[in-house]
Structure to design on (95 residues):
């Protein structure tokens, strides 16, 4: 199973909305990858910026996959990637 950029962003929004007690629509997310930090997400919640590291993103994706697809996935079973040609991010769940 693989999800792409939009669903990864939804996963992060839903995860942070639950933790912060805000609506998912109050959250903005920008995904990134670089050699030093790996996969990250810059997140704005009610005007305040913060960065999520890869492990936080994997946790959010795992919860999203369970909620939306009724499938348990451990964070260690989630591989993140980006298509260098299109800039599309993806998360692959191990079978």
């Amino acid at each position: 199973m693989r999800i792409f950029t939009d669903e990864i962003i939804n996963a992060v929004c839903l995860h942070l909305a639950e933790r912060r007690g805000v609506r998912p629509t109050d959250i903005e997310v920008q995904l990134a990858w670089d050699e030093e930090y790996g996969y990250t997400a810059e997140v704005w919640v009610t005007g305040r910026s913060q960065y999520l590291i890869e492990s936080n993103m994997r946790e959010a994706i795992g919860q999203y996959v369970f909620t939306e697809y009724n499938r348990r996935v451990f964070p260690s079973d989630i591989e993140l990637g980006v298509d260098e040609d299109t800039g599309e991010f993806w998360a692959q769940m191990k079978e």
Notes: Strands lie at 2-4, 27-34, 38-45, 48-52, 78-82, 89-93. The mean pLDDT is 94. The first helix runs from residue 5 to 20.
